[in-house]
Amino acid sequence: MGNTKVLFQLIRVDRLTKVYASGKIRVKALDEVTLGFEEGLFAAVTGASGSGKSTLLNLLGGLDTPTSGSIEVKGKRISDMGKFELALYRRYGAGMIFQSFYLISSRTALENVELPLVFSGAPKKERGERSKEMLERVGLSHRLGHRPSELSGGEQQRVAIARALVNRPQVLLADEPTGNLDSRISLEIVELLAELNRSQGLTVIMVSHEEALAAEFAKKIIRLQDGRVIAEEERR
Amino acid sequence: MRFADHIQFSFSNLWKSKLRTFLTTFGVTIGIGALVSMISFGSGMQKNITERFKALDLFNSITVLPGGFMRERESHDPDERTPESSPGGKAQSVLDDQAAEKIAELKGVEMVFPEVRIPALVKFHDKEEFRLVQAVPASVAASKLVTYRAGKPYASDDENSVVVSTSLLRQFNVKDAQTVVGKAVVITSIAFDFSVLNPGNLAALLRGEKLPFSREDYKLTIVGVAENLGFGGPIPIQSDIYIPPGTARKMKRLPFSNIWDVFRAQEGRLGYSALNVRLSSPKFVEAVKKEIQEMGFETFALADQFQDIQRGFLVLDMVLLAVGMIAIVVASLGIINTMVMSILERYNEIGIMKAVGASDGDIKKIFFFESSAIGLLGGLFGLALGWVTSGLINRVVNYFLAKQGVPFINYFSFPLWICLGAVAFSVAVSLVSGIYPAWRAARVDPVRALRHD
């Protein structure tokens, strides 16, 4: 490890442990993981399935709470937050995208992107404007009124990205964003993430088992195995 | 989340599963409909009776009965007599014209008229009916106690006129009241005939073959046909045929109309069996009652009875409410079922909403708004259903009762408080039904919900 950089660390993860207990069986999904992510970084977390990548991302995104250890985002310990504070963190602090896109099927692309703004109580007009702007940003200005079933996989993931970023979060957490896409579309999506990272300084943490994609775009690659960090690689 | 968004969310979510929403709302509609018609029936009955009493000025009337009369009937145990309400030695007071004049002078008394009822045969169109013919002063016959379907009341207390009611006409198979006005009716009264009491007839008398009575026929003209009332008629007018008091006085008749008169006659205090006292306002009831009691008479005021009637209504309302509540409980279980089903269906969606920043409170509110939307729709439709159903029942009941001569009565009443209350209650019940589903939805773990896909 030996990461001695003094750059501003947006996210600090310290001895993070997550144990899943179901009945008498206890599974240690994460085992004392300590990491740091600087602001504006494009990081990739790789590893075999069951290595704890998704668990790490869920904890970073405030969807789950750790068994022990801590997570600090911009100086705030989200690992100590209550349910309501965590909801606010998910709303404003971190945007997440997933392998299965997780759009609401009954709502149009625009309505899906508006959803976080609905929860933040933004007025209808502002909501529409910001969502349209965001969909334009991901190249989908012509698809506003389409429902997810009328969109291709790549388009659906773009809608998900727009939704994740519409509340201007500090970090975008992508959980296998290309898992359901073919290689050409996968490349487009990761290129879009990299472009957002470059042009807007958006911090991106992407979980992927596709080493090649990670190696091409990420400035930092973290390898997990059995819930432990086995390698941390800085590039350039 | 904004209020408008909650409204929009709840209706669009309900619209997504139309059939289920319809069925659940229909359940609530039936429940509220049942409750509304039950309560409006209770309230309608109460309103009808109260208004009729008020319209007829029944709260303004006191019936005066001879002293000791009620008490002897009510209590057979002499020890239970309460001397204070029938002060010393006045039990022999006679309810005669002198007493009537004394009562008429009391403050607030508008009119006093004795209750005179003559047992008689009434003959019309060759058909005879036995009736107690009542003597009713012209002023009472012309008051708002009586409504006329045809003709008008008699003008003086002495003319040879008679007013019959629609119920009596029905006995005579007369359908059109207008046709009988101006026609003659024969009233046959019975009087003592002492000429029968001679020794030659004694054996027949004792065997009951000959009685010391004779018939007296009086031909009177029908001047008016009075509407008979749905609730058995107003208290001061108890007969369905009445004549002016002067005419009644001229009739030969028995000096009694019931067995109590006979007993009082033997005590030497045969007066009227009752006096009807009308007051200018209900506020005089208590004072006048007290003064009349001090004269040694018994009083009966409907205002006293009305409290008992109202207590009866409370019980009726409770029973109706209980029946309606059963329907509401069933409807509420329907809402719970629908909402829980909806959580299971939208498990993934709840996870997504939480992932993009919905708090537990937001999720709870989304479900509360949905269940109250069901309640609001169910309440509004239920109100309409209750209104339509009671309207139909009202028509059917009135149709059949009209055949028996009962005038049209609105058996249901829909005051504003029932309308607003029904909708508010429906929403409240739905909110309560939504508590468990909302709590369950809020507890959904986003990680598990997203993996659920």
Write up this protein.
The complex is a heterodimer of chains A (236) and B (453). Chain A is α/β, with parallel strands linked by helices. Chain A has one domain (9-234): P-loop containing nucleotide triphosphate hydrolases (Rossmann fold), CATH 3.40.50.300. Helices cover 35% and strands 29% of the residues of chain A. In chain A, the strands form two sheets. Chain A has a six-stranded mixed beta sheet with strand order 6-7-8-3-9-10, sandwiched between helices. A four-stranded antiparallel beta sheet of chain A has the order 2-1-4-5, with helices on one face. In chain A, helix 3 crosses helix 4 (124-137) and helix 3 (109-119) runs parallel beside helix 5. By secondary structure, chain B is an alpha+beta fold. Chain B folds into three domains: 3-54 and 309-451, no CATH class; 67-114 and 272-296, no CATH class; 116-269. Chain B has a six-stranded mixed barrel. The longest helix of chain B has 44 residues, at 302-345. The two termini of chain B are 26 Å apart. Chains A and B meet through helix 2 and helix 3 of A and helix 1, helix 12, helix 13 and helix 15 of B.
